[in-house]
Amino acid sequence: MTAAIRFFVCAILALPAWAQIQDNSFLTEEAYNQDPGVVQHISIFQRDRYDQWTTSFTQEWPAPNLKHQLSYGLATIGSRLGDTSLNYRYQVLGDADAKLAVAARLTATLPTGDWKRDEGYGAVGYQGALATSLVLSPQFQEHFDLGLNFVPRARNPLGGRTDVEGFSLGHNIVWLPANRFNVMFETVLSRSRGFDGWENSAVISPGIRWSYDFPSGLQIVPGIGVPIGVGSSAGDRAVLLYLSFEHRFRAASGQ
Questions:
Q1: How far, in Å, are 127, 128, 170, 196, 223 from residue 162 at the CA level?
Q2: CA torsion sign, 27 to 30 to 31 to 33?
Q3: Smallest Cα–Cα separation from 115: which of 124, 107, 106?
Q4: pTM to 2 decimal places
Q5: Distance of alpha carbon 218 from alpha carbon 215, whole angstroms
Q6: What total number of domains does the chain contain?
Q7: Span 96-115, average pLDDT
């Protein structure tokens, strides 16, 4: 093995032995809201085949307990700000310890991106999503997503306005071959109508994630994914880097 691979393996084996990794998928949602008193900061960096970087930052807060979660998301295309999302998520069923968990999300997107550069829609948009997480065994978890989006009278960079709408289906199978180390395989299918009519998209993304857990309650989760277009999206490819910090901000007040 090269020195880099040896270093990576030693770093994984040296991780402190703490809890499982949850709510850290890259392209899909896991149905686990934030625990009381715990906040999460999520950053995703993605570089496509044209060498363009897109990034996102999401911060999730319990409001004030497990049943209710508030979050916001900021996106950039290159060095410029895209549209901003404000999210509310309700824990319909289960929690991080349950074999079955379900969460529903409502999102409003604000037109903070430059629609003239095709970096935003120039109008307020709306999203709805339902996430389901299932523990199959101590080594395998499965996650399913259904999402809908609608942006009325979005601005076209070429002129005029049109409604943008679509839906997506997501699936993620997570394998835990070792403590604090996961292998994931995500699939996202979507169909949307925008300025150029209806379009289909299909992406698969193998990836890995691992965690550093500390006695203070801080958990750091880095990850790497490789989104690959298939079918009508064949030829699309990217590299995705993930980084999450989760820590306690006050004493838990119950659920």
A1: 17, 20, 26, 10, 37
A2: negative
A3: 124
A4: 0.89
A5: 7
A6: 1
A7: 97
